[in-house]
Amino acid sequence: MRVAVDIVIFTIQSGSLRVLLVRRKIAPFEGKFALPGGFVHEDEGLEDAALRELEEETGVGDVYLEQLYSFGTPSRDPRGRVISVSYFALISPDRTLQAGSDAAEAQWQEMQKLPPLAFDHGAILEYALERLRNKLEYTTVGFQLLPEKFTLPDLQGVYEAILDKKLDKRNFRRKIAQLKILKPLKEFQQTGRRPAQLFRFVAGKFEKLKDKGILFPF
Amino acid sequence: MRVAVDIVIFTIQSGSLRVLLVRRKIAPFEGKFALPGGFVHEDEGLEDAALRELEEETGVGDVYLEQLYSFGTPSRDPRGRVISVSYFALISPDRTLQAGSDAAEAQWQEMQKLPPLAFDHGAILEYALERLRNKLEYTTVGFQLLPEKFTLPDLQGVYEAILDKKLDKRNFRRKIAQLKILKPLKEFQQTGRRPAQLFRFVAGKFEKLKDKGILFPF
DNA sequence: ACAAAAGTGTTCGATATACACCCATGT
DNA sequence: ACATGGGTGTATATCGAACACTTTTGT
Lengths: 218, 218
Fold this sequence. Notes:
The structure is a homodimer.
Chain A: E1 2-13, E2 16-23, E3 33-34, E4 37-39, H1 46-58, E5 64-71, E6 82-90, E7 107-110, H2 121-138, E8 149-151, H3 152-163, H4 169-179, E9 182-189, E10 196-201, H5 207-213
Parallel strand pairs in A: 1-6
Antiparallel strand pairs in A: 1-2, 1-4, 2-3, 2-7, 5-6, 8-10, 9-10
Chain B binds a DNA duplex through helix 4.
């Protein structure tokens, strides 16, 4: 019985939610897209294995990583019995440039236009998205998808891309404001028309979030 | 690499939350209490394995069962590499009588007075309790801990036992009422002083619960 | 001047919380 | 009659949802 980790790595690019997929070079499912992942080494923790695979695929460490679910239907891998412990990871777009360092065929695909996936990876991805949407509401995971400095429109864009719906600007900003987790900077982003103020995430005061369950001290 | 399932089985007895523990008869941790569980068979799904173990320990099938988390620190089992996929189960007190059918040493222990547990089972149990408390708020799992017919004080007792705090009777009853998931019966429980009305859980209308995430279609 | 996105408050309904008395039964 | 737990309603604070205009910049 072998144990593998499969990782759903989300990022935001061009205002849309994307996931890292690799094209399989060998059977089964040769040529199909799959989640990045691999077998857990004999003396390696599950999360360590996920971090290793993640770094191999994206070249990036130190990202938000959380265990998702374990899939173990006996028939899920035609080669034999493989238990997949799935993880989901979030990475900010300014750190995704290195992607493809290992698996030459790794691509950031839009969640809107997904190809059919190998194994049961479609179900894993679906569940990851549901979890991400839920956590967005009661935790601060959303900030993991932004660079260190960001604007409020950027932040709202992250929420809108994940939830796949428009949000009211004023309500959104009030909600963020009362969390008191943003430090306003004296810098402004000069990109579009009117410059937007930059902020930094400071995990200082998140009382209400903490007792609602920032979750899991592992 | 071996894969095991460990199951946190909760019930309510004498108004307090209890968990099923078995005393280990062999090393390692001989004589210590542990969560019921065992190795996954070669051609058996993870949930099937959990159900099998659960039925072996309690003699009961058809219970609420949900996957919790997978623990895989290499050193967690001194005998060698074992990945534990943990589950949590809820069982109503009128069905727990058969307990101990297999493991002669299986006991329902109060969550208040827990002995130290073998392996990392203490951490598993802690996480299971946290999850149960969270789910209590946005799902109807609480009803799984009651017999088919129950009174409102019974139901409130379940919530109080799990959350380990007193709740306001009137607020509690209003909250339950507006879910419209209880069918009042024409029977009354004759036990204490004044008879209490019996209800039956009917999953009919739980709109708000459903889109909040009754979760996981597997 | 105009186009485009940034920024800013108020109202209203729903939901959570705090709180005290009467009722039905068994002894 | 009294002790025990069952049963019921109101007032207040808090939170989420709807909704429109002014400001700053680049062209």
